[in-house]
Amino acid sequence: MSRVICIANQKGGVGKTTTALNIACGLAVAGQKTLLADLDPQCNATTGLGHEPDERHALIDTKPLRESFRDTYLENLSLLPGARSFEDVDALANSSDTRSRMLAAHLAGSLGSFDTVLIDCPPSLGPLTRTALSSASEVLMPIQCEYFAMEGLTQMIGIIRQTMDRPESRLEFGGILLTMYDTALELTAEVDREVREFFGEIVFHTVIPRDVAVSEAPSHGRSVMDYAPRSRGARAYVELCQEVLERV
Fold it and tell me: What does the mean pLDDT of the chain come to?
């Protein structure tokens, strides 16, 4: 059975898409047959791998999901692109619980050929995020090292626990990741301490530093490991991928 990791946080700007893209690329390089599924209507994971969004969202389209998979510049990495269709986004955003379960089953039923699937969620607690959680075996939450880092996490964890309590669910907490880490700021150390004291071992040892190379890499359609392999960001994501592999 595929390992399906949902990258989710209701807050935007926390490095969610960047993390999904770089973990997907890192696992593919490590020999894992990997799929990056873009469920965010902003489609940044799609364009970050040098592709254009689809005209119709694959979860709305009637054709088999696998027909929407695209090859990428890495042999072991495939992409399920996002779509910016307002009609599809509206349909997904207003899905009922029953429809969300149907979408989750549609998504989960097409992932068996991959070792690992990374799902990039929109920054919300809406139906798309719930669909991703219903399809996943793990949820990974990036948290930016800022004053409001813990804000909203109670709601996010509540949704995760609701999903975990469903009889058919196999969802577990995969980890919490500290992003945009700046050792020069006292606030960063405070957030790090609070998060680790509250969540304990679920927090990844690896932290993702502020690094311009991490921000630049998607504009070149590459992971930071390929774009700037000697950068601090590249080293951090390599270490994170090792942790993700060790947590199987």
Answer: 89
